[in-house]
Amino acid sequence: MEVRIRLSISQRSHQHFAYTQTMNVGDSTDLAVAKVASAIGEQARSRMLFSLMDGHARTGTELAIIAGVNPSTASVHLARLKKESLVSVLVQGKHRYYSLYDLNVASALEALAVVAGTPRPTFRPSTPLRFRSARTCYDHMAGTVSVLLHDHLKKIDWIYADDRVVNNDYNLTAVGAKGLESLGVDVEETRKLRRRFAFGCLDWSERKPHIGGALGGAILKMLLRREWATRDLDSRVLSITRLGQREFRSRFDLQV
After folding, report:
1. Range of weakest confidence among 71-85, 101-115, 119-133, 231-245
2. pLDDT, mean of residues 132-139
3. DSSP for residue 13
4. By the 8 A CB rule, do 121 and 50 touch?
5. What is the DSSP letter of 120?
6. Rounded to an integer, what distance in angstroms lies between the CA atom of residue 119 and that of residue 117?
7. Handedness of CA 214, 230, 138, 75 (dihedral sign)
């Protein structure tokens, strides 16, 4: 009888303190977290990831230099980061540009940086300032001005990423189509051209997207026709005129 009483008291004590209960965390969750932590925890890969925190895409060669490893080793590291959905890759011509996979990855790295007490690295482009500001990229505008315009048109919901395709294509909202038509862009004729309508073309000096495709070409033609911009005679440089500066400021609240 005495033994039974002791067992009963012990069981009630265990139930009160939840000693016999287990956390309902599956092995698959443990393994997934461990894989991601392992991928981030290697120093070369960590350097690569934190260099992408500024929002600018970088090539494998650049990331190899940042990580202090040779290109072949960098490729292995980047493959691991891609496998764990920590980075995404955009193939543009012969180049492969890497960026953080999404905001969740950036937030996790930010939290780790806070815990570690380290500052965020900054991106310092080496492109000459005038060439970096505005230039042509094939038949559309590239450079700081075009990236600012791209970001603003997304912000005001004139353009949006088209989820029906996987090639980083964009489409226009009804408001965006009306707004561009008011500026002299013939949206319907632009859609009829035998080429991609619009997509995020990665800007090699800013390492952020500007608007490429038929729509990007139509916008550049509009800027030149309205004399918001002029072409240099002997280079790809575009100069934003005083009229253009005023129009960018009044219509899009952009200081260019």
Report:
1. 119-133
2. 87
3. H
4. yes
5. P
6. 7
7. negative
Q: What tokens appear for 177 in the block? A: 């189509």
The rounded distance, in Å, linking the Cα atoms of 153 and 173 is: 10
Q: How far apart are CA 126 and CA 132, in angstroms?
A: 9
Please give the Cα distance from 204 to 118 (Å, whole number): 28
Residue bearing tokens 């309205």: 226
Name every residue whose Cβ is closer than 8 Å to that of residue 200 and which is 6 or more positions away in sequence.
Answer: 150, 161, 168, 170, 209, 210, 211, 212
pLDDT of residue 9: 41
Q: Which residue has the tokens 């550049």?
A: 220
**Tokens of residue 36, six digits:** 């991601």
**pLDDT class of 115 with cuts at 50, 70, 90:** confident
Q: What is the pLDDT of residue 85?
A: 93
